[in-house]
Amino acid sequence: MLNASHMSNMAALNFGSQRMRNSLALCFGDPNATAAVAAQYRTRQFQEVAKQLPLATFSTFMIVIASLLVALRTDRHVALVAACGLVLTSLATIHLITWRRHRRPKEAQAQKTVSPSTAVWLSANLGIGAFLYGVITLCMFDALTESERVILTGTVAAVIAIGAWMFSALPLVGLLWSFLFCAVVGVGLISFFWQDYGVLAALLALYAFFLISGVLMTSRRFVESLIAETEISRQREIVGLLLRDFEENANDWLWETDSMGRLCHASVHLVEAAGSKQPLLGRNFVDVLGSLIPVSNQAQVRLLARLELLLDQRKPFRAILVEIRIHDQQRWWSLTGKPQFDSAARFTGWRGVGSDVTTAHLHDLEMTQLARFDPLTGLANRHQFHQQLAAYFPADGPALPCSLFLLDLDNFKTVNDSLGHTAGDELLREVAQRLRAAAGGRGLVARLGGDEFAWLIPGNLPREAIEESHRYLRKVLSQAWQYQDYSIAVHGSIGVSFAPADARAAADLMRSCDMALYAAKAAGRDALCYFDPAMEVQASQKLGLLGDMRKSLEAGDFRVYYQPQIDMGNGTLAGFEALVRWQHPKRGLVPPAEFIALAEDSGLIVPLGAWVLAQACHDAATWPPTLRVAVNVSAVQIERADMYATTLAALQRSGLPTQRLELELTESSLMRDADAAQSLLRALRAKGVRIALDDFGTGYSSLSYLRSFPMDKLKIDRSFVSILDEAGSDGSAAAIVQTIVQLARTLHLETTAEGVETEAQLEALSQLGCTYGQGYLLAHPMAADQVIPFIERWTGEQVAPLSRLTAPSPLDEAALRQASQEAQPSQSQRLVLHTGWSPLI
Question: Across the chain, how many H-helices and E-strands are there?
Fold first, then answer.
């Protein structure tokens, strides 16, 4: 132990000694520098000292003259002072010559460096001068009176300090000056004036120590500044190389103007992009852009005027999109610029970058087009509908008259359940065509989601016109629809409301029309009902359902089911999506479509969502470590709950690793409060939680959300998947899905296709490169106690039981088992893909 302790102390001592040597070496130069760089540093140190030589020379002349006058006045040490003065004057003359040689080196001499011998020579000269100064000081000290010696002591101390500071850039000079000057004076005081001035000699030794330390520290800072300058110079060279490489190889291009707005620099790519045969340099930048914009394009002319105003006001701008035409081709440029100022804050011009973003812009336009129309029916989607509806309710004026029809198919669920979702999608397309034909171009026909359609007509239609429209709609819809061997009668319930008679806001109009639609359904379906204020009473029924939800939350009547997600590449099980179900005491297992909206409106989605998250993490902790669990998060949870704390608490309580949890959010939840949602997602992502964008393509689908929000996955909505195997498809469905998949690849995101129900859909998704898939074809949602058996059947391996924590709430295992058996498909349903893997149902 003693040997080990001794070795440890020795190692610490050696380490400290090494650090001290390195620190001391840095006072003289960079020990890690190459020979060439070290020579440059030495030259800079020499030149820095040489700059001080004129002042030192002048001081030498003055000190020599003053010393001679004192010696002659007192008639003491005249010869010695004269001899020292002569030598000092000679050295000062040499120093002045040295300064002239290094004052302004010519271009041919600029690259020359100072040799070590030259630096030593200068150090020796100044060291000799310090020695002679010390001799003269002792002569003066002996010749002066007591009061005059005080003045001499202060003057000499100042001269030593100033010299040490002036010569500290070259440490050998500074050290020799301080040491020799102080040593000569100190030795003289001890030798000739010990009895009266011994204390002064001791103080002088201490003074010398501090001066030498100051010289070393100042020299080190100077060397560090040289190292920093070298690094800055190196970085400038790198930046210059990168800029040259950027201009030569990048698709973007640089532009620069003088203070008058004339181009003084234009990269080759700018000249090529402009397609101009005339030289661009010297031309006004705005005029160059104006020559590429057709006069008929008034929007771009106004944009150019705005850009010119920004340039005149010297305000920076970023990513201004300019539409131009070059050789009869329409192009889009993105321009960014920043005003430039010199060291005196004078405006010198503009500098910026531009790029041809035609491909990306056209892609954005295509995605925006997809976002405004329902991909299944081709009608306007919910987003476009609400935009036009909001236009009838201006914020600064009264509501404009309009009539709203809401139509909900009466037998859609029967078709979906009996013939499958593919038949349901075919029916929705057929209904959309009939509604479009019935509208005849009047107003806006939109699909709001599911089997709900809207028809928004300007003006308040009279009752007779509405009745006639209803009869025509019934006639159009009731025509038998042929699907395979089935002939299906189509019927719909319609609710009607008017603005401003029934509502003064868009939301109120939708609410009143919804009430009318519910009344039409309650009246026996295939009917039309107008909104009546008495329908408000019926809303009280929701309060009863809301009370049941509160009781069920307390009683633990909610269940979490899990639907598998399969890797499309190799058929392995990737994880499960958590789906909430309500085990109502009287109504049985209630699907989320019947209570989630009410839970969101009432705020009960916050405790319900927290429970689902906790239960899903708790269950997933018992699965194999390679499987993830995906949990849906409502926009209300983001707005009203601390989702960050809720998520971390669920993970901590369950022991589930953060990377195995995936939160699914819809675009609408991100659009409500983008800043808050972005902060939340970044914080969760930093902890390792994965983020998925659910139902991609059905909402606004703005690319800005994909750029600004941290995402790991895009979930392709089932409406895109369902049309992949559409009979007679022209390939547009596959093109849409392929666009989404390619977009996800570009952004390094995974994709999951929802609602995979046919072999053709699965095959198409696999060929398009979709990452994961889920749907009834692969497996139905299942209860928590069926997950482990499912994993064992899928993988063919037995899963070792894991220790489980206490469940977040009591579970009715018998009800779960019965409900899951009812939802589970038969064992005969199997699928074999060309890739060689077969999912187990």
Answer: 31, 22
Dump pLDDT digits (tens) for 289-301. Answer: 877 787 777 888 8
pLDDT tens for 705-763 read 677 788 899 998 888 888 887 655 556 767 888 888 888 888 889 999 998 998 888 98
Kindly state the tokens that stand for 77: 């040490």
Residue whose entry in the numeric block shows the structure tokens 């994961």: 772
Q: 378 and 499 in contact (C-beta within 8 Å)?
A: no
Q: How many other β-carbons are positioned within 10 Å of the β-carbon of residue 401?
A: 15
Residue 515 CA, chain-centre distance (Å), reads 44
Q: Which two tokens stand for residue 488?
A: 């299906």
CA distance 382 to 385: 5
Q: What residue has token string 């429970």?
A: 611
Is residue 761 within 8 A of residue 729, CB to CB? The reply is: no
Q: How many CB atoms lie within 10 A of CB 764?
A: 21
Residue 583 three-state SS:
strand
* Residue of 563, 590, 587, 608 whose CA lies nearest to 718: 563
Q: Residue 535: CA atoms inside 13 Å, Cβ hemisphere, count? A: 20
Q: What is the mean pLDDT of residues 128-147?
A: 80
Helix (H) or strand (E) holding 661: strand 661-666
Greatest CA span in the chain, whole angstroms? 138
| Residue in the structure block whose two tokens are 């100051």 | 214
Amino acid identity at 337: G
Which DSSP state fits 293?
S
C-alpha to C-alpha distance for 288 and 285, rounded to whole angstroms: 5
Q: Look-up: residue for tokens 């306007």?
A: 380
3-class state of residue 186 by DSSP: helix
